Amino acid sequence: MNSRRPLVTVLGASGFIGSAVTAALSRRPVRLRAVARRPSAVPAGAAEVEVREADLTSPSAVADAVAGADAVVHLVARIEGAATWRASESDGLGERANLGVLLDTVGALRGARRAGPPPVVVFAGSASQVCAPVGGRIDGTEPDAPVSVYGRHKLGAERALKQASAEGVLRGVVLRLPTVFGQGPASVAPDRGVCATMIRRALAGEPLTMWHDGTVERDLLYVEDAARAFLAALDHADALAGRHWVVGTGVGTPLRALFTRIAELVAAATGAPPVPVASVPAPPEAAATDSVGYAIDSSAFRAATGWRPEVSLDDGLAATVRAMAGSALVRPA
């Protein structure tokens, strides 16, 4: 084993985005440590990969996971329920996973003694950290005023990472992501986002419902493009450190058009008629931001790294439908 190769730790390696990042890193000349509470799958033939199962809500487990790491990709996140993409105020583990693990990571790296430059930490933030965008575009310059508990957790973690970066403890990079969709390679955890939820409903023959007229737009980023953004962040850490960067396609897709296309693709895969797409009254748990459309202007990140999304929405949706239609993960929402 070549110990001079950099050691990269992926926290949350078995998850939806984590499995895609782990697969991409396994093809690089690095020592890879994949850490999650479930077993992490890595491509056959991948060299210098250490797979660890650990409960990362334990501070000691976090310290062990990041020990000696030259870079950490932090993808630990929690939402409540198998068929939702939301965090809940009543979910006691949400803050521990979404904020506490990052604080433990910073604490462990602060206490470590090492020669050479500070380690890189790339953290998965969220577009939900921003207040309702003016003009429907987010470019990273907006004031932060999250209205969701998930957004508040992510913002707290981001601030702690930036502070540690300013102190020279680490080189912290935050990628604020939009809606990420797809079927992660070898993931043991299904995507619980809006696209996957609607695909499951369509596969179960259920109508796809909206809490508005369907004109609300979302920026939808395919999971493999998201994974490549994390690798780009690792490659350009010195240029990106100490800041947050918004990552997305730049295209806002109306939800009615999205749900209609999902219904069509599922129908083509199953041979059944397309399920209906309908507007329904918003439930009590609906947030004000559910009716605010946005797209991500990631020109700053693109200029700094050269990253570009490569998978079109239609190609990504078609691949996701094919994977879910033949997967044991398919179940009614």
UniProtKB/TrEMBL annotation:
InterPro entries: Epimerase_deHydtase, Lipid_A_modif_metabolic_enz, NAD(P)-bd_dom_sf. Residues 8-248 form the NAD-dependent epimerase/dehydratase domain. It comes from the Bacteria. This is Nucleoside-diphosphate-sugar epimerase. It comes from Thermocatellispora tengchongensis.
